[in-house]
């Protein structure tokens, strides 16, 4: 029975954690390609863990194990029905997206997720009387299965298996797990008596707190990685893999366990450095540092939990507390904080709370990540003295992380004019951060002062809010589930810029009026990637040559810069998913939209996901449809699939063009566009660059223009934008709603370029992280 229980625990957990990225992948084309979809799915599955643990504990206490077979059959049948709903791509249209996603999850996979979550505690109850194994170690088998499921999905299933076949494979694995669980618990039901439940046990509050910190840290790191790199399953699962590995270490018998726990304070100190310098790192270094360091921190947290784990009748209550804390942390960081941002921001305006609240809001594009690091420091606080052999591994981890940071200093702070000074500043900051926190954690004199280390980490995180911005004075900052949006006035007071996370979304000339207020000026002069002397300026000059009115669709609003090209009689229709961006573009700091309306252009904004909005749009077709919907430097994956291309084609007039803005620090998006266009037999050409004398406010950008195979409509308004001799983009992998391979289009930067033997620069001129150009340029 013991081996059967191990296999059942492994396959049940693998099924549950295969289901999580599978259903998130299915929901992305329906509700938009933002990282919030994954965060919502993670919170939902945390809730299913609580319900599953509660159900398992009640069944074990009431002798209801014999009912398992019926529960398994009902759950699997409901899963089949849920997969049919997902495969039909049904959308709960009238509801707000936040409610619709959770309701969609509940209706499609809620029952089977709760059933699979029951497996681990149910099996531990079933083998409680078997003296050959510590039942808590069965939890390590469960986490090993979870890890296998998470690794299998992005590396094998997503890459090689269509979504409909993924669902079939998952059903086979889940059915096998149900049979193994039934075999184990049916024997236990025949041999054992109902177990007495003990809902209270020593340290329950601390268990909830530490598990909440671990869950919140996982969600915050996921949000930080996906903000700049993309809402992709591979990035979704990496922080969760780290969490599961730490469970295996803590609840298993790994010899390095104590050494990893000893290294946790050091890893946390280095993570603080990455927290306020990571925006300037190459993607591979960024992922390695975040995941490696957070793994060590999570090992420390989970080892604290393992030490608090009870035995006997309180075992079920322990797992309920564990799941409750994880759910609370995930819900707080993933859902509640983004929605309560306005209330917290109001507190930051009062003279009494501003000194405390404002630094908490300005530490990072994902400021709650810094708060999670502080909470982790308090959870790791300890009075113990570390053994020298434990500290040796901590030293190895510290040296490895530091060498990775040193390797990245060639690209450190690319915004600074003095590259040598910026490298020394980055290294000096890293050394001071790590050494200072290490002193608080490891010096023998601090062994009796557990509060010293968390206080040091708190000061480090708060100090990051006082690092001067390379852009200038902040005008406003807002936050929702789509990220942090900031408007700033540049140091020279000539520009107002709009940032989403760490990426510039627009810039406009501005000045101070007689009353001292900052007002936007020159609404006919778009800047940054949209400059009239850049590729997009050439496109509109060519289209406007026949002097015919244009109908233009634009997926992605930003500051509304493209409205500068709208002339009287033109119709520009913007599609924007983030209401905060709409408010910023229509607000007092940017005037592109208002000025275009005053010129007689018809300017409208449709709120919602661009692809979904295009799919149900019934208006007149577009002469030009522009995709400019990057969120920070993340990949708009659901907008770059064949299905998205065909949806866009249906909105084009005969001879109309699709234009993709593919500027990106980390990924060669132009290769994806080229591959999809070639697969469909469409014509394409690539445009980039600026005049030799770079104009003020201009940034280099990269665009790919595509036209379906349909012949252009005859008449005086027909123009030709495709240059057959300019097709520099090498076609990469074709992306669909079933397949995407981000590793195939990652740019060679930093350590990745060294491994590949290439020398591509980390940040191309005018990449989305560049600051406003100097007025003297």
Helical proportion, percent range: 40-55%
> Helix/strand-derived class?
alpha/beta
Tell me the strand percentage band. Answer: 5-15%
Order of strands in the sheet with the most strands? 8-7-6-9-10-12-11
Largest sheet: 7 strands, mixed
Catalogue the unreliable spans. 409-420, 751-756, 758-777
Provide the descriptors you would attach to this structure in a database record.
about 775 residues, five-stranded antiparallel beta sheet, alpha/beta, globular, single chain, disordered C terminus, seven-stranded mixed beta sheet
Indicate the topology.
Layout: H1 2-31, H2 35-62, H3 68-87, H4 97-117, H5 119-126, H6 138-160, H7 163-191, H8 204-229, H9 233-251, H10 257-277, H11 283-308, H12 315-339, H13 341-347, H14 354-361, H15 368-380, H16 388-407, H17 419-442, H18 452-463, E1 472-480, E2 483-490, E3 495-500, E4 503-512, E5 518-520, H19 535-544, E6 551-555, E7 571-576, H20 579-585, H21 592-598, E8 602-607, H22 610-616, E9 622-627, H23 642-649, E10 652-661, H24 669-680, E11 683-688, E12 702-707, H25 750-756
What report would you give on this structure?
With 777 residues, the protein is an alpha/beta fold. The chain is 54% helix and 10% strand. The protein has helices spanning 2-31, 35-62, 68-87, 97-117, 119-126, 138-160, 163-191, 204-229, 233-251, 257-277, 283-308, 315-339, 341-347, 354-361, 368-380, 388-407, 419-442, 452-463, 535-544, 579-585, 592-598, 610-616, 642-649, 669-680, 750-756, and strands at residues 472-480, 483-490, 495-500, 503-512, 518-520, 551-555, 571-576, 602-607, 622-627, 652-661, 683-688, 702-707. The chain has a seven-stranded mixed β-sheet with strand order 8-7-6-9-10-12-11, with helices on both faces. A five-stranded antiparallel β-sheet has the order 1-2-3-4-5. β1 (472-480) and β2 (483-490) form a beta hairpin. The longest helix is centred in the first third of the chain and has 30 residues, at 2-31. The termini are far apart.
């Amino acid at each position: 029975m013991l081996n059967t229980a191990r296999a059942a625990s492994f396959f049940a957990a693998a099924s549950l954690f295969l289901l999580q990225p599978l259903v998130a992948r299915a929901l992305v084309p329906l509700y938009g390609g933002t990282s919030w979809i994954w965060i919502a799915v993670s919170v939902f599955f945390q809730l299913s863990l609580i319900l599953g643990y509660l159900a398992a504990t009640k069944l074990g206490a009431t002798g209801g194990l014999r009912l398992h077979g019926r529960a398994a059959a009902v759950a699997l049948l409901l899963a089949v029905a849920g997969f049919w709903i997902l495969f039909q791509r049904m959308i709960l249209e009238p509801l707000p997206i936040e409610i619709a996603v959770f309701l969609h999850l509940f209706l499609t996979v809620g029952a089977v997720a709760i059933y699979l979550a029951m497996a681990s505690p149910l099996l531990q109850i079933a083998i409680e009387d078997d003296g050959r194994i510590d039942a808590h170690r069965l939890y390590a088998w469960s986490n090993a299965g979870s890890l296998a499921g998470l690794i299998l999905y992005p590396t094998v299933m997503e890459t090689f298996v269509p979504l409909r076949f993924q669902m079939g494979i998952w059903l086979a694995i889940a059915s096998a797990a149900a049979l193994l669980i039934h075999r184990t618990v049916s024997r236990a039901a025949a041999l054992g008596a109902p177990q007495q439940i003990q809902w209270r046990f020593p340290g329950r509050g601390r268990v909830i707190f530490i598990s909440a910190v671990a869950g919140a840290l996982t969600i915050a790191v996921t949000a930080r990685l996906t903000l700049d790199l993309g809402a992709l399953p591979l990035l979704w699962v990496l922080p969760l893999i780290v969490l599961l590995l730490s469970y295996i270490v803590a609840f298993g018998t790994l010899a390095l366990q104590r050494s990893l726990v000893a290294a946790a304070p050091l890893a946390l100190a280095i993570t603080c450095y990455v927290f306020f310098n990571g925006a300037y790192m190459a993607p591979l270094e960024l992922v390695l540092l975040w995941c490696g360091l957070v793994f060590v921190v999570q090992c420390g947290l989970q080892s604290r939990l393992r030490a608090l784990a009870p035995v006997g009748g309180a075992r079920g209550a322990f797992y309920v507390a564990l799941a409750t804390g994880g759910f609370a942390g995930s819900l707080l960081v993933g859902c509640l904080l983004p929605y309560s941002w306005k209330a917290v921001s109001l507190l930051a305006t009062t003279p009494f709370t501003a000194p405390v609240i404002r630094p908490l809001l300005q530490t990072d594009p994902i400021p709650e990540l810094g708060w999670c690091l502080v909470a982790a420091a308090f959870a790791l606080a300890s009075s113990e003295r570390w053994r020298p052999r434990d500290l040796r591994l901590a030293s190895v981890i510290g040296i490895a992380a530091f060498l990775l940071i040193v390797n990245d200093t060639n690209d450190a702070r690319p915004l600074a004019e003095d590259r040598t000074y910026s490298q020394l500043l980055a290294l000096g900051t890293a050394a001071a951060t790590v050494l200072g926190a290490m002193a608080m954690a490891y010096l023998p004199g601090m062994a009796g002062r557990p509060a010293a280390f968390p206080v040091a980490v708190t000061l480090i995180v708060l100090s990051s809010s006082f690092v001067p911005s390379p852009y200038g004075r902040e005008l406003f900052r807002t936050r929702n589930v789509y990220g942090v949006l900031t408007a700033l006035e540049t140091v020279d007071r000539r520009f107002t810029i709009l940032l989403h996370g760490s990426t510039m979304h627009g810039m406009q000339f501005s000045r101070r009026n007689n009353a001292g207020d900052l007002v936007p000026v020159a609404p006919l002069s778009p800047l940054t990637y949209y400059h009239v002397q850049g590729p997009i300026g050439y496109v509109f000059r060519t289209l406007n040559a026949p002097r015919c009115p244009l109908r233009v669709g634009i997926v992605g609003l930003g500051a509304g810069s493209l409205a500068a090209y709208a002339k009287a009689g033109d119709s520009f229709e913007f599609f924007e998913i983030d209401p905060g961006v709409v408010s910023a573009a229509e607000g007092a700091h940017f005037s592109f939209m208002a000025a275009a309306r005053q010129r007689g252009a018809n300017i409208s904004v449709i709120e919602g996901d661009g692809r979904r909005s295009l799919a149900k749009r019934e208006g007149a077709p577009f002469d030009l449809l522009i995709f400019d919907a990057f969120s920070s430097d993340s990949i708009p994956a659901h907008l770059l699939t064949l299905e998205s291309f065909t949806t866009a084609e249906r909105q084009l007039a005969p001879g109309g063009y699709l234009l993709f803005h593919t500027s990106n620090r980390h990924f060669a998006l132009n290769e994806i566009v080229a591959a999809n266009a070639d697969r469909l037999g469409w014509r394409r050409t690539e445009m980039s660059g600026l005049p030799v004398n770079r104009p003020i406010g201009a940034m280099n950008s990269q665009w790919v223009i595509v036209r379906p195979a349909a012949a252009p409509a005859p008449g005086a308004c027909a123009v030709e934008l495709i240059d057959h001799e300019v097709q520099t983009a090498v076609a990469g992998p074709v992306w669909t709603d079933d397949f995407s391979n981000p590793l195939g289009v990652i740019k060679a930067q930093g350590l990745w370029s060294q491994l590949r033997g290439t020398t591509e620069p980390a940040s191309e001129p005018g990449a989305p992280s560049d600051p406003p150009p100097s007025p003297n340029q």
